[in-house]
């Protein structure tokens, strides 16, 4: 026992050093932890249902105006093409900094408007505030997701599922912190928290989020599966803790101190992944030291590359001299440039290679994905945005409707994590193609839409909220993983944001043009064509199953069509998914090479201008190598 305590003390002394701290902060595992923290505070858009009532009461908006704000919220959170284009030319910290500035500016103006600190803005200006604040989520997602996928390309399914899972839990995390800091009861304080907290978290981790070259990702991929499962278990514990707190807080009255105690437990679970990161970095360090001790005696000779060095042997003839430049270029027409561009765009590489943005835009595979997600995510997002009115029309009390919203948040997380981890495991073990997993998710969401359309009594709406939340969350890691696998990682920052645009497009068609119009028509029919004012002021109310029956039957048909369309992608990519799609990433990790698709500057990809050659002559001290 004495030796055990001594060993533990030695480990503690070794871990609690500045050198080991620098080692942890410079590793890709701490980058993953930093991204988890950023995304756990980035889901302010999912809290819109909480403060939308304050928008209506404080600013005098009717239901149509609130629905318009909800659409611009969805538009801002999903249209991340500007974030993707910025990521193509700037490092991740610049993307995160831009997102933090947009979050602070957008939501701070919303708060000032609600608090009466500024003049009541017109609707179009409030839409701009909400859209700018929501668009910060796309910047945070781009900076975090793209960085982690490039750092862990061989386990991207688990990475995407884990990160998107924390996004799904973020609104519940913000709600718990809001209760602890402000005591609840005032939605304006929630908007203030949403304005400063996500921006502060992003700024705190700016320096640690970066793409690491493959030769700098110490430890390769060994043992990473165990680490991801540890992180999965922690996230499951976090989700279970939040769910228990939601239920308990609705059943009993909490004091300010009780809310603070529950938030303290939440923070412990939020920061628990840091212990996993430290343990993994310590294990990598010990394995590296053991491998150096057990390696054969070698000497390291440094050979500098000079301009005089030439790879051409003496027996080979010199290359032919190029003709002298005349200082003029041959004439080129705009037609020839356009023709070259079109030939490039319509000549895509094979699946898995790096596509350019024009090649991906005109790709049949991208069009199929766009159509499938527009139908699938558009339908589930319509159900989520209207869950309050659905419960109200079916006669559920407000407390039960709030429980539906909480269930959607938790099952949204469950869908993201389950889809990421399960699809990765099925792909690795059985070669189960990820597009087929997307088809299964779309088909399952049809069942949730049918439950809403039929308005079945009992716990049907509970089951519908579970199915809708799970399927909505499951679509995102599958979409992002398929895009990275089919189109490569070189332009991934822009391409995955292009795929996300399908969600607001589908939501506009199915929510605004279908569900909203049919709801208003049924409400007008029930009230004899008049537009009565509800108790909330100015919005039409509809009661009964007929309010959403027709719209969700249409949504069910659209989602089924999206599932059938996704089967076309399954057929087109069947040969690609039969092979080992991650082989080149593992080979590059073993060889210590940097793939061009991982991005980064030339300085990052080639950190040294020297070659190291080994010969079995003398031994170099281990301290020099380490």
From TrEMBL:
SUPFAM superfamilies: MFS general substrate transporter
Mode of membrane association: Multi-pass membrane protein
Keyword terms of this UniProt record: Membrane, Transmembrane, Transmembrane helix
Organism this protein belongs to: Urochloa decumbens
Entries under Pfam families matching the protein: NFD4_C, Nodulin-like
Subcellular location per the Swiss-Prot or TrEMBL entry: Membrane
Biased composition (Polar residues): 326-335
Residue segments, region Disordered: 307-335
Protein name in the entry: Nodulin-like domain-containing protein
């Amino acid at each position: 026992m004495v030796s055990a305590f001594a060993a533990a003390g030695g480990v503690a002394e070794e871990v609690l050093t500045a050198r080991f701290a620098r080692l942890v902060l410079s590793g890709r595992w701490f980058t993953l932890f930093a991204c988890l923290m950023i995304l756990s505070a980035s889901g302010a858009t999912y809290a819109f249902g909480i403060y939308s009532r304050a928008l209506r009461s404080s600013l005098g908006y009717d239901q149509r105006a609130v629905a318009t704000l909800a659409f611009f919220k969805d538009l801002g959170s999903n249209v991340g093409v500007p974030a993707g284009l910025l990521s193509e030319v700037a490092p991740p910290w610049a993307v995160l900094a831009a997102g933090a500035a947009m979050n602070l500016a957008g939501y701070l103006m919303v708060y000032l408007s609600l608090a009466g600190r500024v003049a009541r803005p017109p609707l179009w200006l409030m839409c701009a505030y909400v859209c700018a604040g929501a668009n910060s989520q796309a910047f945070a997602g781009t900076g975090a997701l793209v960085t982690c996928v490039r750092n862990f390309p061989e386990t991207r399914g688990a990475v995407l599922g884990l990160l998107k899972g924390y996004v799904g839990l973020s609104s519940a995390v913000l709600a718990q912190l809001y209760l602890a800091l402000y005591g609840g009861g005032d939605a304006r304080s929630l908007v203030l928290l949403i304005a400063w907290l996500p921006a502060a978290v992003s700024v705190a981790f700016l320096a640690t989020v970066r793409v690491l070259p493959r030769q700098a990702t110490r430890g390769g991929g060994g043992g990473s599966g165990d680490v991801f499962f540890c992180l999965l278990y922690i996230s499951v514990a976090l989700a279970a803790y939040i769910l228990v707190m939601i239920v308990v807080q609705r059943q009993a009255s909490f004091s300010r101190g009780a809310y603070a105690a529950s938030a303290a437990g939440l923070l412990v679970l939020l920061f628990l992944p840091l212990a996993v990161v430290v343990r993994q970095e310590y294990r990598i360090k010990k394995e590296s030291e053991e491998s150096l001790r057990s390696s054969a005696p070698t000497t390291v000779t440094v050979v500098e590359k000079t301009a005089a060095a030439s790879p051409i042997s003496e027996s080979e003839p010199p290359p032919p001299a190029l003709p002298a430049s005349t200082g003029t270029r041959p004439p080129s027409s705009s037609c020839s440039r356009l023709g070259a561009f079109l030939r490039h765009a319509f000549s895509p590489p094979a699946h898995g290679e790096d596509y350019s943005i024009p090649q991906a835009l005109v790709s049949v595979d991208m069009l199929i994905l766009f159509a499938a997600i527009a139908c699938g995510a558009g339908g589930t997002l319509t159900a989520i945005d209207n869950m309050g009115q659905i419960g109200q029309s079916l006669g559920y009390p407000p407390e039960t409707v709030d429980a539906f919203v909480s269930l959607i948040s938790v099952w949204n997380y469950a869908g993201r994590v389950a889809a990421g981890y399960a699809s990765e495991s099925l792909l690795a073990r059985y070669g189960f193609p990820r597009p087929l997993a997307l088809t299964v998710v779309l088909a399952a969401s049809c069942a949730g839409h049918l439950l809403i359309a039929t308005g079945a009594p009992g716990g049907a709406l509970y089951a519908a909220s579970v199915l809708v939340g799970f399927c909505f969350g499951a679509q995102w890691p599958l979409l992002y993983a398929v895009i990275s696998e089919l189109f490569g990682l070189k332009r991934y920052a822009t391409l995955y944001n292009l795929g996300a645009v399908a969600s607001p497009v589908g939501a506009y068609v199915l929510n605004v043009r279908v569900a909203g119009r049919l709801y208003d028509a049924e409400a007008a029919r029930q009230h004899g064509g008049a537009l009565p004012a509800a108790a909330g002021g100015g919005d039409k109310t509809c009661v009964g199953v007929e309010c959403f029956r027709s719209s969700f039957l249409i949504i069910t048909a659209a989602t089924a069509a999206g599932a059938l369309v996704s089967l076309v992608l399954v057929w087109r990519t069947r040969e690609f998914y039969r092979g080992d799609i991650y082989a080149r990433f593992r080979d590059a990790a073993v060889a210590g090479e940097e793939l061009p698709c991982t991005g980064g500057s030339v300085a990052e990809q080639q950190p040294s201008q020297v070659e190291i050659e080994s010969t079995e002559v003398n031994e170099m001290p281990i301290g020099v190598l380490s």
